[in-house]
Design a protein that fits this description.
The protein is an alpha/beta fold. Helix content is 31%, strand content 24%. It folds into three domains: 203 residues, FAD/NAD(P)-binding domain, CATH 3.50.50; 111 residues, FAD/NAD(P)-binding domain (3-Layer(bba) Sandwich); 121 residues, Enolase-like, domain 1 (2-Layer Sandwich). Helix 1 runs parallel beside helix 4. The longest helix has 26 residues. Bound molecules: flavin-adenine dinucleotide.
């Protein structure tokens, strides 16, 4: 039998890679994990975590304004971008340390280097230009922001990566994209006092979400002062003579801004990885093709997380890693379950969602019931903030199963997590109806919408 340097070699120290390496090492396997940038990966270093810290920072000016309605006088406030970036960097460094220690304590070998495949069992460590061999290999190299290389002037633009490290806060920013990263950053920058414009080629932001969430958030963002341009794209970005950048759009608009940020999706990061040398197949986007157990066409090479372009979310990468461990090292073949993934958009107001949108449900089921409430949250009464919350349940008329739950408003992400448990357990609308409300909360609305707002039958809306 062939002998290898390692039982498992993991390429990429992000959400999926770290979890698989740590668990495999904990089971006594000889494991090495290579990371070319910083352990923790996109989520910890330049994704979910720093983004959420920025979201918190950007909410304070509304908190200060709202305080007056509750009797508080808040003195003059001032925001210091450099202080925020420094505090964020300190926290990220702490988290990176925790990730490293977790791996070390489990007995994995950490390699601070880029790694590339040389053949199906051999990996080159770029820093030392040495090779090692492994019985099994996991590709967990994640994704990269689409640089939109076809756009003239794209090199003048930033992506989310740079947004976390700008030396100064821009006075104005133009953000291209309509996905959750574009929307979240538009809210972050606006909240920090930056004049913000969002430009998106589609008819409405957040294309795969329920239409009430999309329209409700659009309205709320515009009411705050964020400019949203739809059905338009940037065609060219140039340096303005007076400083800053000028973007020319397809419809002929000219937008001048200090920064232009491209948030146009994320591509699987497989370039230069040597996949062809190992015989690993990729699709037309460069994503590693895997079966239901995250196995590539080369039986001992696996891929998980964003590099497979299934669902680009941290908990999904972690879940896929845990399924790999069950399947390969615990003798319990487990395929990742991608159904009913609860998720949030950390916009302001937030979106929390799980399951089918009204449009998807109406296409798949003969008759659906829609329960919808739109109301002013209690906190906004004394603060006087013009703010609406929307809650929505989409129910299958045939068996009363709740197919989708969607919330726009404060703490929607927190609520979505718990709704995710209920929907996963197959909850029916009758279960919601016999659940006692928690009063006074916004979430109680979810269990007190007794009558459907309308039905959709054969694609037609039926009111009353
Ligand atoms: C701005 C932003 C906000 C996000 N917000 C959220 C959120 O709120 N919630 C959520 O669930 N998800 C969010 N995501 C998505 C989330 O970050 C990813 O889904 C998750 O990190 C995927 O994990 P992964 O293990 O597949 O890859 P990654 O975490 O990207 O890790 C891949 C790692 O591999 C390394 N690497 C790549 N190639 C090599 C190589 N050849 N050799 C060595 N190392 C290599 C990279 O440096 C990287 O550290 C966000 C992403 C971004 C960009």
């Amino acid at each position: 039998m062939a002998s290898y340097d390692y039982d498992l070699f993991v390429i990429g120290g992000g959400s999926g890679g770290v979890r698989s390496a740590r668990l495999a090492a904990g089971l006594g396997k000889k494991v090495a994990i290579a990371e070319e940038y910083r352990f923790g990966g996109t989520c910890v270093i330049r994704g979910c975590v720093p983004k959420k810290l920025f979201v918190y920072a950007s909410q304070f000016h509304e908190h200060f304004e709202d305080a007056a309605g509750y009797g508080w006088t808040v003195g003059e406030s001032r925001f210091d971008w450099t202080a925020l970036v420094a505090a964020k960097d300190k926290e990220i460094a702490r988290l990176e340390g925790l990730y490293r220690r977790g791996l070390e304590n489990a007995g994995a070998e950490l390699l601070d280097t880029r790694a590339e495949l040389v053949d199906a069992h051999t990996i080159r460590l770029v820093k030392t230009d040495t090779t090692v061999t492994a019985e099994r290999i996991i590709i967990a190299t994640g994704g990269t922001a689409n640089p939109h290389a076809a756009l003239p002037g794209h090199e003048l633009c930033i992506t989310s990566n740079e947004a976390f490290h700008l030396t100064e806060l821009p006075k104005s920013i133009l953000i291209a994209g309509g996905g959750y990263i574009a929307v979240e950053f538009a809210n972050i920058f606006h909240g920090l006092g930056v004049e913000t414009t969002l430009i998106y080629r589609g008819q409405e932001i957040l294309s795969r979400f329920d239409h009430d969430m999309r329209q409700g958030l659009h309205k709320a963002m515009e009411a705050k002062g964020i400019r949203i341009l739809l059905t338009d794209i940037i065609e060219e970005v140039t340096q303005s003579p007076a400083g800053g950048l000028t973007a020319r759009t397809k419809t002929g608009a000219t937008i001048v801004a200090d920064q232009v940020m491209l948030a146009l999706g994320r591509d699987p990061y497989t370039k230069g990885l040597g996949l062809e040398k190992a015989g690993v197949a990729v699709d037309e986007r460069g994503a590693v093709i895997v079966d239901a157990y995250s196995r590539t066409n080369v039986p001992h090479i696996f891929a998980l997380g964003d590099v497979t372009d299934r669902v680009q979310l941290t908990p999904v990468a972690i879940h896929e890693a845990m399924c790999f461990i069950e399947t390969e090292y615990r003798g319990n073949p487990t395929s990742p379950d991608h159904d009913l993934i609860a998720t949030a958009v950390f916009s302001q107001p937030e979106i929390g969602t799980v399951g089918l949108s009204e449009e998807e449900a109406a296409q798949r089921f003969d008759e659906i019931e829609v329960y919808r409430a739109e109301f002013r949250p209690m906190k906004a009464t004394l603060s006087g903030r013009a703010e609406k919350m929307i809650m929505k349940l989409v129910v299958n008329g045939a068996d009363r199963k709740v197919l989708g739950a969607h919330i726009l408003g404060h703490d929607a992400g927190e609520m979505a997590q718990l709704l995710g448990v209920s929907l996963k357990a197959g909850v029916t609308k009758d279960d919601f109806d016999r659940t006692m409300a928690v009063h006074p909360t916004a979430a109680e609305e979810l269990v007190t919408m007794y009558k459907p707002s309308y039905r959709v039958k054969g694609g037609q809306r039926i009111d009353g």
